[in-house]
């Protein structure tokens, strides 16, 4: 049991670390391409400076993400051999396609970084667009593999073995579209608001700084629409979970009893021992309405499932509440930003608005971490839902606590180094007393 805990903990820490870089790999290329496009359209050298700085930041994060992703690929085989033995022939296709997308992103990121004055302007912009598309594609293929774990399809199970494998059908599971949509929007919202929050903090000190104003505008252009649309994506995901993983939905909402017109629990502490969610704010019929779009629809509670198939209710419910609360705050801030921009108001001169944007900076990443906790913890005790239990998929190798501690320390060290490198990028940004030249030469 201790080895199962160590294996799950090591995989969880590795995923939590890697997902940040994967998310930034989706959002940052879009920011740098938008900055370059504006420079070429307006001739404003400030946007060129932004594009170059953001491309350097993208390269740093891409490199560390490649390392952490490689570690994860080894951990899948070493820590979860029975899972890979069973699922390898099925999830091999999306992982192979992810590899193609990864190498495409690496190739064209190199072209983008070193091709400023070596290829035509149009080719340079196109190379950046390909980086952005391949980064998103890479994430989509990984999420498709995870979606199969939640709703396994595309095979025939004979004596505990997968036969008649259809990899295309396996990729097109009911979970694929909701999870991919939710992940891509979350990546744009998190990256956009993280970058916007950094530059908003700088503008609170110096509201006239043109460099940070340009950066804030582009970052909000990416982050705000994604954060505003994300609740709709969440609704699609919730309805898929209600149909395909009702035990997970019950744990997410802290619903212990099957009922019609089920209430929506906001907050509260879900107690498995007491069989109820204490201190929650309840909205009558809310869960039935959200899950099935019917006020009196029946929603299965945890009492509809064997006790040994319950997910960890407390952590699933808590993670879900954190994700929804922070995501809702970001959506409200995004709505306020878009309304102010539509009314042609300068948000930089509204201190309360800038503080709200700064507060949103880490929230998107916290939402993503909490969302993946909901996805993974809420699927327990299954690693392949309804087919293979997590306890049966883990390696029998003892002594996993040592590599767990080692890798955790390594990730913390890498995280500090990356933070310092990115912080230097912000500190060295142009200031008002260091005006940018009207014309800038490509490096």
Please tag this protein with its features.
443 residues, mainly alpha, two-stranded antiparallel ribbon, two-stranded antiparallel sheet, 14 helices, 10 strands, 70% helix, disordered C terminus
Topology of this structure?
Elements: H1 2-42, H2 45-79, H3 81-114, H4 121-150, E1 156-158, E2 161-163, H5 167-171, H6 176-205, H7 210-244, H8 246-253, E3 259-260, E4 264-266, E5 269-271, E6 276-278, E7 281-283, H9 286-292, E8 298-299, H10 313-342, H11 351-360, H12 363-377, E9 382-384, E10 388-389, H13 390-393, H14 401-427
Antiparallel strand pairs: 1-2, 3-8, 4-7, 5-6, 9-10
Helix pairs in contact: 1-2, 1-4, 1-6, 1-7, 1-14, 2-3, 2-7, 2-14, 3-4, 4-6, 6-7, 6-11, 6-12, 7-8, 7-10, 8-10, 10-11, 10-12
Protein model, in words:
This protein is mainly alpha-helical and 443 residues long. It has helices at residues 2-42, 45-79, 81-114, 121-150, 167-171, 176-205, 210-244, 246-253, 286-292, 313-342, 351-360, 363-377, 390-393, 401-427, and strands spanning 156-158, 161-163, 259-260, 264-266, 269-271, 276-278, 281-283, 298-299, 382-384, 388-389. The strands form 5 sheets. It has a two-stranded antiparallel ribbon with strand order 1-2. A two-stranded antiparallel ribbon has the order 3-8. α1 packs antiparallel against α2, α3 (81-114) packs antiparallel against α4 (121-150) and α6 runs antiparallel to α7 (210-244). The termini are far apart. Residues 433-443 have low confidence and may be disordered.
């Amino acid at each position: 049991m201790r080895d199962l805990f160590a294996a799950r903990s090591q995989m969880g820490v590795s995923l939590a670390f890697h997902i940040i870089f994967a998310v930034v790999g989706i959002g940052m290329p879009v920011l740098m391409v938008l900055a370059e496009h504006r420079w070429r359209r307006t001739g404003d050298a400030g946007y060129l400076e932004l594009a170059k700085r953001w491309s350097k930041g993208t390269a740093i994060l891409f490199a560390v993400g490649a390392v952490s992703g490689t570690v994860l690929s080894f951990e899948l085989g070493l820590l979860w051999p029975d899972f890979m033995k069973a699922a390898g022939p099925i999830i091999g296709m999306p992982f192979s396609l992810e590899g193609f997308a990864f190498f495409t992103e690496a190739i064209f990121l190199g072209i983008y970084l070193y091709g400023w004055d070596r290829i035509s302007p149009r080719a340079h912009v196109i190379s950046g667009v390909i980086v952005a598309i391949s980064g998103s594609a890479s994430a989509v293929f990984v999420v498709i593999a995870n979606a199969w774990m939640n709703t396994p399809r595309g095979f025939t199970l004979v004596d505990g073995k997968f036969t008649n494998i259809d990899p295309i059908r396996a990729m097109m599971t009911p979970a694929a579209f909701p999870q991919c949509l939710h992940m891509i929007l979350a990546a744009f919202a998190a990256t956009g608001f993280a970058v916007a929050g950094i530059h908003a903090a700088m503008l609170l000190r110096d509201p006239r700084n043109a460099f940070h104003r340009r950066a804030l505008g582009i970052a909000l252009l990416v982050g705000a629409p994604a954060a505003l649309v994300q609740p709709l994506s969440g609704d699609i995901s919730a309805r898929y979970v209600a149909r395909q993983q009702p035990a997970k939905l019950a744990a997410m909402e802290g619903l212990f009893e099957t009922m019609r017109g089920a209430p929506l629990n906001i907050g509260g502490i879900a107690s498995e021992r007491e069989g109820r969610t204490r201190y929650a704010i309840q909205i009558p019929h809310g869960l039935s309405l959200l899950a099935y779009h019917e006020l009196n629809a029946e929603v299965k509670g945890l009492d509809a499932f064997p006790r040994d198939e319950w997910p960890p209710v407390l952590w699933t419910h808590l993670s879900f509440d954190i994700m929804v609360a922070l995501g809702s705050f970001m959506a409200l801030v995004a709505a306020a930003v878009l309304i102010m921009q539509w009314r042609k108001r300068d948000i930089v001169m509204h201190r309360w608005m800038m503080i709200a944007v700064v507060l949103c900076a880490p929230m998107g990443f916290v939402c993503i971490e909490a969302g993946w906790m909901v996805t993974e913890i809420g699927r327990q005790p299954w690693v392949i839902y309804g087919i293979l239990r997590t306890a049966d998929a883990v390696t029998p190798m003892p002594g996993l606590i040592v590599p767990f501690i080692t890798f955790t320390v390594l990730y913390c060290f890498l995280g500090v180094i990356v933070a310092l490198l990115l912080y230097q990028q912000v500190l060295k940004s142009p200031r008002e007393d260091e005006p940018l030249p009207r014309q800038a030469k490509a490096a």
